Amino acid sequence: MEAAAIPFSDTVRGEIHGEVLVVTIENPPVNALSADVRAGLVTALDRAAGDASILGLVITGAGKTFIAGADIREFGQPPVEPILPTVIERIEASGKPVVAAINGAALGGGLEVALGCHYRVASPAAQMGLPEVKLGIVPGAGGTQRLPRLIGIPAAIDLIGSGRSVKGQEALSLGLIDEIVDACLEDAALAADRRLAGQDPRRTGHLAVPAADNTAVEKVKARILAKARGQQAPAEAIRLVEAAARPLAEGLADERATFLRLRDGSEAAALRHVFFAERQASKVEDLEGVSPRPVETIGIAGLGLMGSGIAVAALNAGYRVIGLDRDDEAAAKGRERILDLLQKNLSAGRIDQTTFDAQENRLSVTAADGDLAPCDLIIEAVFDDLDVKIDLFRRLDKVIRPDAILATNTSYLNPDEIAAATAYPERVLGLHFFSPAHVMRLLEVVRCARTAPDVLATGLAVAKKLRKLAIVTGVTEGFIGNSIFSAYRREAEFLLEDGALPHEIDAALEDYGFPMGLFAVYDMAGLEIAWARRKRQAATRDPSERYVEIADRLCEAGRLGQKTGRGWYAYPEGKRQVDPVVTDIIAQCRANKGITPRNFRADEIVERLLAAMAEEGQKLLDESVAARESDIDLVMINGYGFPAHKGGPMFAATQTPR
Ligand code: 3HC
């Protein structure tokens, strides 16, 4: 007879199965290791130690998560005993075998608990990793010391330094788990416990660190550090893993001290802000209780670079896709472009042949508007011109069902004007993708003046299925991202006129953590589109507004960026280099306006650019275009290269004295 559940704390309970104590953590939503969970685990260990009839323990999680790690909300509060390292040491020291039954995500402290156990069985879908660096910290409960003992130094650097997680076969091949269990996980864990009972447990912390090949270590280190861009946590994690061969207690003490130092630092505060910002972003006002409309088939009008990327994202998410272009030839070209992208996914091993075939079957293309009739949602990605878009929406309006949704992917046009051209403006919204659309995670979901709540909810549901980070924005020129980007760009050009040079501004930005400085980005993207826009706007520009002509002079001199071999920089043999010709053009423009240039320190440059972004952000909040500061931060981090470890422009502005 099975015994009734034994409560070890509010969130941890036990059940005796024969001679094994099964300890279940139930701390919704994700079984984070709160003080109550930690206390419950210790009580369970005490109970097992003191009961001769118990021969072993199983630790598992209730629901779909094993343990999502330390409770991030407890960071910044005074520590409450027992702390996690102590709990894990108790697990590891147990004389009775402890088996981790990893039923779902085992992340951070959750995986560290599993590493403290003597045997690990996992469901095939369980995600396992130490994502602490993504929170600006290193694992703080033995991860950097036990993982290398189990899987070796290069693999441990890879997992801990990148924060990526693994599952199933990869976890098994690495030696991270002992068994993958397709059938009943608990039965497998109980069986393992019974097998191990009476033997001396295999304690991870007592294993010797496997000898590592130096070249492999250097290679993985270089890869991680190249991506770290000024962040401290990845380098610290590498240092700790590399030193794992010293006595365990020494390594654990160093790890804990490093964890606490980083946890209380600015990088971790910024990344925690980003973590909670992402969860917050999906909570949209007025949508509580509103059900999205069902979407199975997505039409994509315009199969250029952007449209093809959107199609690939939709096919990856399992949607049926009907592509529309202006004639059969363009449609066929679009289909080819989409298949090329899918083929790349196949070659890179991101999808298998069966998935590729299924995706190809779910794709059709046409040049006839009427063929979009079965679509539940149509996303247009045609040339960003109001007349072109209005004409398309008028035509589509006539052929699709009245409950089908129309989305515009415009970057700068007013979607309210596009909606007004249709018979049902309530069904129109904006879905502003970032290029390449199958790669970039950000999606601005534009709530137009008349967008119906369930249409907006559908946009968000589709975004989630596309695995995008959706940020809701109201209508303003450029929405959230391009509005802030314009302010940033404008301020950078003021700085140029005031005395900073492009390479000084870029160096300051790259030092701050941007992957590439603004002027280098311009050169990569090409200067001509913005130039054409400025020429179009020239007639309506307010003459009293400060206007910087330097970019125009560059374009007039044929310096259109990398593709012309020169722009803000020169590119001899493809290498970016300061060009004295540009310095002269800048000096001339300053002189024309009678500006005496001054020197700027890197921190002054960054501060001015941040202030300009934050000021524009505040405007968007005041106008209710953005719902919250953290949404603005996420847009700039995920769409414009703002370093996540600085938390985004709004967060950074609260940290930097201005
Ligand atoms: N602590 C506190 N709250 C957490 C949490 C954590 N570790 N992980 C998730 N949550 C909260 C979220 O904030 C969210 O709360 P909300 O509903 O109030 O907004 C809720 O749990 C659900 O989270 P998601 O929306 O992310 O749920 P998903 O099902 O999409 O994803 C998950 C689940 C994969 C577990 C994901 O939440 C996740 O990746 N969590 C973070 C994992 C992590 O970073 N762990 C390391 C923590 S640091 C650590 O362990 C230090 C140690 O070394 C000492």
From TrEMBL:
Sequence ranges assigned to domain 3-hydroxyacyl-CoA dehydrogenase NAD binding in this UniProt record: 297-473
CDD domains: crotonase-like
Transmembrane segments: none
Known catalytic reactions: a (3S)-3-hydroxyacyl-CoA + NAD(+) = a 3-oxoacyl-CoA + NADH + H(+)
Domain of life: Bacteria
Name assigned to this protein: 3-hydroxyacyl-CoA dehydrogenase
Annotated 3-hydroxyacyl-CoA dehydrogenase C-terminal domain residues: 478-571
Location in the cell: Peroxisome
Gene3D superfamilies the record matches: 1.10.1040.50, 2-enoyl-CoA Hydratase, Chain A, domain 1, NAD(P)-binding Rossmann-like Domain
Pathway: Lipid metabolism; fatty acid beta-oxidation
Similarity field: Belongs to the enoyl-CoA hydratase/isomerase family.
Listed PROSITE patterns: ENOYL_COA_HYDRATASE
Sorted UniProt keywords: Fatty acid metabolism, Isomerase, Lipid degradation, Lipid metabolism, Lyase, Multifunctional enzyme, NAD, Oxidoreductase, Peroxisome
UniProt xrefs under Pfam families: 3HCDH (PF00725), 3HCDH_N (PF02737), ECH_1 (PF00378)
